[in-house]
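I am still getting used to backbone structure tokens and would like to learn alongside you. Label the sequence line and the structure token line clearly, so we can match residues to local backbone shapes. Would you write everything just below, so we can both look at the same thing?
***
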Amino acid sequence: MQQLIEGGFLERWANLRFASRRRQAGRFTGSHASPRAGMSVEFADYREYVPGDDFRYVDWNLYGRLDRLLVKTFVQEVDVPVYFLLDVSGSMRLGTPQKAHYGAQLVLALSYLALRSLDRVGVFPFSDRPLDSAPPRQGMTQFSAILRLLSGIDPDGRTSISEGVAGFLSHTRETGLVVLVSDFLCDDDLRDPLARLRHRGDEVIAIQVLDREDIDPSIAGQVHFVDVETSDRVNLAVGSSTLDAYRRRFEGFQTSLRNAFLQRGIPLFLAPTDRPLETLIHQDLRAGGILE
């Protein structure tokens, strides 16, 4: 894969971080709110005193007014595991730039944001076969590990969201923020893998990376098509009626895809590879409440 980092790449994402939409229960100090009680600058609530509670957290002013022992609880700032599932199947090899390259740059940029917030970040490339991954860790040494992993990607195999999610779940036990990056150009029934993620309690975001030719093809004439994932071949005369039929099928596919995510409360972002990465991150993901 061509070089992922160019001059000033990391500086473009300064002052952004993930905006988790629910409280997380992470393990290490970080920058997201957790419902665990403990010492913190952010007061959360009161609860009834039980034997063994630290008297330092009893609100004596309330005791004087209500004659009840109430203990202050606090929100503890912790890290959130951020998991990236990146489609590296054969269809991601297509496009200008390659969809796999665009997706890898996106994952790299978002990984950097999460690591700067002291979150643990893991990256799990997938197709229809087991692939190397970067288990979730904190620190900028993890960024180097992710960069090495993504730089060595050679898109191949068939798209299988089911295999990707199953492999990811088998390697992780802690819930977190899951960012699923794919072109989603497959016959997979998404209901089961999405339900498995939501059942475990993960917060899920989907980003669909497409080439402009996927969305609005400009080819015409006698064309020899080769399926990059199955090697199936077909000759087809492409004219205006063929392109119109494709666009109708594509729009129907996109509608079904959006509904599949919407029914499970999962935001889906469209990321054409001719859309600058800065625009996608600074505008689309911020407007969608994913970054702040």
Summary: The chain has two domains: 10-24+79-287, 29-78. The domain at 10-24+79-287 is CATH 3.40.50.410 (Rossmann fold). DSSP finds eight helices and eleven strands in the chain. Confidence is low (pLDDT under 50) at residues 21-40.
